[in-house]
Every structure is written in C-alpha cells, then in structure tokens.
Design brief:
Strand content: 15-25%
Radius of gyration: 26 Å
Number of helices: 5
Shape: globular
Order of helices and strands: HHEHHEEHEEEE
Structural class: alpha/beta
Length: 223
Amino acid sequence: MAAAERAHHLYSTRLSLNARSHPILPALATLLLALTGCGAEGPADPRQADPPPARVRLIAGDRARSASELPPGCSLAEVKEAFTEMLSGADAGDRSRTLSRIAAPPELTAFVLGPASRSPTGDAADERTRYRRPDGIWRYFARQSSRGYSRHLLDAQVDEISPGTGKGAGPFRRPATGPAADDPVVAIGFTVGVAGDDGSEFTLSGKAGLNCTSGRFYFYGGG
C-alpha cells in the first residue's frame, strides 16, 4: 500500500508540473482518481445510519380521549423515552439504565421474550421465554447485544387502562396489594426494529404495560 501511495504522489506531482502546458491534464487526473478510488472513502455502512424516528400515538378510549388526558408520567413523549432508555441501555451494555425501566417483583408480571433471529423461512422465531425477575431480563438483553443485535422503537400505540388487579385483566394484571397496586398505568402495542451486525433487519411486535408513576414496565411481551 505504501508503494502505491508513493507512486500516486509522484504521478500527481508530475501532473501538477505539466498542468500549465497541458490544461486538460488536471481534468484527466480527477477522472483517474475517481475511477481508481484513490483518496476516496468507501460507501457508508447502512448499519451505522440512525434508525427512523419512532411514531408514538394514542388510541382514544373511554378513559383517555386525547393525549392530554393521559396520566402524568405517561405522555406520548414519556412513553417513547421509557422505551428508548430501556432498549438503548441494553444495546450499550448499561445494566443500570436498562433496569431503571423495569419494575421489580411483586409488581413485575413478566417479560416474554424470544431470540432475535429468523427461521430459514424468514419468519421470526416462535420460541419464547418468560422472565419474572429483572436480573434474568438483563441477561437476555446482554446476550442479544453480545451477539450483535440492537433494538429500536418504531411504533407505539398507547391506551390508558385501569390498573389490572383482578381476574380477567389479561397480561396487564398486577398484584392487588403493594405500593404500586393503585398507580396509573397504560397499555402499549408496539413494534421494534431489530438490526444485526451481519446486516440483517426485521421487526418484532408485542404489548407492554407501563407504570406511569415509576416509569417502569411491569409487563413486556413479544419484542
């Protein structure tokens, strides 16, 4: 490579010396450099591009008919921030930042997560594991990051719900007693983009429950 650079320098010097007597030479030199790629950077790596901005919106229901009626702590911007903190913390290997957005037992219902991979048919893998403790959730995200996968929020649909403390509340039910039992909560349908350092990209969708007082997810499944 050093020899090639010296030859290129010598050639450029000769062109410069002869430029006055041969005005066309500078244009030819520019064309030659463009064709050979000398001194030019390669194409940008698309994996280093910033992800598209997330779209976060309200599903108007009986409790919140507009974004301004969402509980304090669960504005559309704050919901986006909760996702960003948790997912970017995991990508960066920042354990404290990730866990700052995950509820602790007994409020934590579960995180239901699967491998960030594709089957040979192109479908997202169906295997899911239910994690009920923050340390297990962190280890999952840390493994994904070490394997070259990163996540970012693409879309979120927010709906205020009653704190789920009884039967029939589905995945959003929480313990009927304890300091967080009566905190306002929202349900979120979301889609995250997953990117691998091998250039692979796909999406995963799921649902989450967010405590508006603490800013922590007490349920998260599918993404």
